[in-house]
Amino acid sequence: MSxxxxxxxxxxxxxxxxxxxxxxxxxxxxxxxxxTATLIRRAEAGARIDDPRPVAGAVLYVHGFxxxxxxxxxADFFTDRDYAFYAIDLxxxxxxxxxxxxxxxxxxxxxxxxxLGLALEIIAREAGADTRIIVAGHSTGGxxxxxxxxxxxxxxxxxxxxxxxxxxxSPWLDLQGDAVLRTLPVTMLIKAVAAVAPTRVIPQExxxxxxxxxxxxxxxxxxxxxxxxxxxxxxxxxxFLNAVRNGQRxxxxxxxxxxxxxxLRSDKTHFAKNYSASTDRADVVLDVxxxxxxxxxxxxxxxxxxxxxxxxxxxxSVAHAREQxxxxxxxxxxxxxxxGTHNSDPTRKESTL
Length: 353
What we know:
The chain is of the alpha/beta class.
């Protein structure tokens, strides 16, 4: 499936100075058709299509579970460094979710390959085939993008050649919690329920501590839509968790994303049911020791940096932590993602928008 030549960009109703484009997708293998994805861009990205000035490249940002794109400071960071910024709300997520959809539901993370490939096609068409693209993924989006690039490298080298780097922000590389949750009997139970009742919700108490640490209506400083990103998160289904566990086991066997990768995470974990000051200076969603353990399975040239006092989303951390996170990205872009080079063909010309 490919995207049409028309632009189809419309103003975004959530963010000023942003535009969105709906990407129609094929039939949903999980029976919730129709499904679409939504590509979001800074308005400047479209304005510079015919601008002859050279740019550093483009960025495609992929959100996590119970999330959508609202991270304007992250877009500002890349735009200030002359990257055209794009983000995608995956099928059944954020702007792409319809009333008939189970939020963030899939039974196979590889289903997202469709919209991610189409997003690359759109960015390359707008920015030029020689534009180097940084893929950025947060949490579940980090797992999704890593597995996608491994498959893309093997199955579609020409499209993979558009990607020059992978930026992972607290990627979900293993199942957090007690060790018993990662045993074979529990794994087989998840698989068995997922096979017969994939949309059944896993019985668990969801903590709102992370959401309260972020949102301006509670203890945080960030403004976002609580219908698209609820304070306590969306329910987790057996089908979705089975898809995540399948993806994590594949990554644990070793993959190769085929590009340099930067992994950012907090320096500590603090699981909590209720908000406290400690919630603001730790990852309260994932076990950072697992991120550290499994990052080496990504293949290629890896840079892994723990950020002191960072939250689960390092770019939504307290000021000093997010400032360090941005400094680390800056250093990585300058030292590893070098202007005038390309991961697959160093003879390619400097890109322009």
